[in-house]
Amino acid sequence: VKFYETAVEALSEAKEIAIRRGEDVHPLLQALTLLNLSAVLGDMDHDEQGLRWGLESLTMLYSFFSKHPLPEEAEKFYLITACHNAALLNVKLVRWDSAIELWGEGMDLSKALG
Questions:
Q1: CA-to-CA distance for 95 and 80, rounded, in angstroms?
Q2: CA dist., res. 103 & res. 95, Å (int)
Q3: For the chain, where are the alpha helices, taking DSSP H only?
Q4: Tens digit of pLDDT for each residue in 46-77?
Q5: What is d(CA 12, CA 76) in angstroms, rounded to the nearest whole number?
Q6: What does pTM read for this prediction?
């Protein structure tokens, strides 16, 4: 439990810095910080908060990649991870339609990797 509490504290501080400094922090770093925070919050059963930051991360990733493409495999890896994280949190919250939609999006991206 102490590890998770420490992780949430550190990631919450990182999130605040990333949001407060905005353009001074690389957008990919912002999105990945929110994704990591989301995952740890989900591990601690703070699923609503975790989903909020997970969906924000997913939105940021799509926005970033539309303006600053990375190699296709890297983009898909990040998007698959974010989709499946959000799908899992929706399952925990018994939001089946959203979980299935996000799982499907992640699976489509996985299949596209070949």
A1: 19
A2: 12
A3: 2-21, 27-43, 47-67, 72-92, 96-112
A4: 999 999 999 999 999 999 999 999 999 999 99
A5: 26
A6: 0.91
